[in-house]
Amino acid sequence: MAQQYRKKYEFQSEIKQLLDILVYSLYKDKEVFVRELISNAVDALNKVQFELMTSSRVEDRDEELRINISFDRDRKKLIIEDTGIGMTRKDLMENIGTIAHSGTI
Questions:
Q1: pLDDT of residue 82
Q2: Domain boundaries, the chain
């Protein structure tokens, strides 16, 4: 049996931006986080379509471009999945581990 190696990554946030997002989102527009996730999924689909037409980075594939949205009532989870371009390890490290960071500061 192969050994599994795990790396530990710390979660980071930019507090001022995080608080601004939370305060504005919670009191003015409760659906903003869902819209943002769906918007990200649409962007991923658009990017894979563009790459399929203009580059050899993405191989031709038969997989349907789609967004699936479901809710697991028992676990109280909203699940948003897409078949878009995906993220590299670098993308994950730069974007998922840090919240409220736009890269424009």
A1: 93
A2: 14-98
DSSP string, 57-92: SS----PPP-EEEEEETTTTEEEEEE-SS---HHHI
Task: State how beta strands 77-82 and 67-72 pair.
Answer: antiparallel
Does the model's pTM come out above 0.85? no
Residue 38: both structure tokens together: 């769906």
| Sequence-ordered list of residues with C-beta below 8 angstroms from that of 101, at least 6 positions apart, any chain | 12, 13, 14, 17, 95
pLDDT digits (tens, 9 = 90+) for 2-52: 556 666 666 565 666 766 776 666 656 667 778 888 888 998 899 888 888
Cβ-based neighbour number of residue 13 at 10 Å? 14
Strand partners, 78: 71
